[in-house]
What we know:
The structure is a single chain. The protein is α/β, with parallel strands linked by helices. It folds into two domains: 1-42; 45-227, 2-Layer Sandwich (Endonuclease, Chain A). Helix content is 47%, strand content 17%. It contains nine helices and seven strands. It has helices spanning 2-40, 58-65, 85-94, 110-121, 132-135, 142-147, 182-187, 198-214, 222-227; strands at residues 45-50, 99-104, 125-130, 151-154, 164-168, 172-176, 190-195. It has a seven-stranded mixed sheet with strand order 1-7-6-5-2-3-4, with helices on both faces. α2 runs parallel beside α4 (110-121). The protein is elongated, with a radius of gyration of 26 Å. The mean pLDDT is 88. Zinc ion binds at residues 56, 58, 75, 77, 79. Its main location: mitochondrion.
Amino acid sequence: MWAAGAARRAGLGLGLGLGLGLGLGLGLAAALALAAWRRQRRPVREVLFFPSRPSCTEAVLVEAAAEPGAAARPCPCPLPQGDCPLSRLLRRLLSARRSLEICLFAFSCPQLSRAVQLLHRRGVCVRIVTDAQYMGIRGSQIGLLRHAGIQVRHDQEDGYMHHKFAIVDRRMLITGSLNWTTQAIQNNRENVLVMEDAEYVKLFLDEFERIWEEYNPISYKFFSKDSK
Ligand SMILES: [Zn+2]
């Protein structure tokens, strides 16, 4: 009786000990996993400074397009390859899986245009707001992007639609002084801030939606001027 009770108590003690040990072990493992996940998922905080030296971004675009066998063929162009502000900007954009809002005064950079078209083909919902006066000039990518089926809206004001920002997956804000032109990318001193910050993303997204609605073609006013 006593022996059985002691054995039971011992068993209970062992069970408790094991349980506690296991619990602590699992707790520790979970805490470590959470810490690792947090390290991995630390919000993006990055600044890209331009000019970016002329460089080959073919690998970044081909990798994103996942064209079979394409990765094995190095680009034959003589430009240096590797990391540069433009390739970093491309990678940030190409991380989009669901949505991409773009608000740009000038968009003529062919590589960035390819990235945007690639996202559109991949099923990402792309919306572009741009400046009416700039979008028609030679080299502008807006016509091509529209032709690819991407939604574009433009201002109808005397002032410029001078913003330069993009929002990836309603999660990451890309903003700064840079217009997406080769001229600016290769020659100008520019800064681009990349951040995952819910508050700033929301403020920019709200403004994008406001402008998007304001530039809705159904509310165009420039025809009414002549009709009177
Ligand atoms: Zn190349």
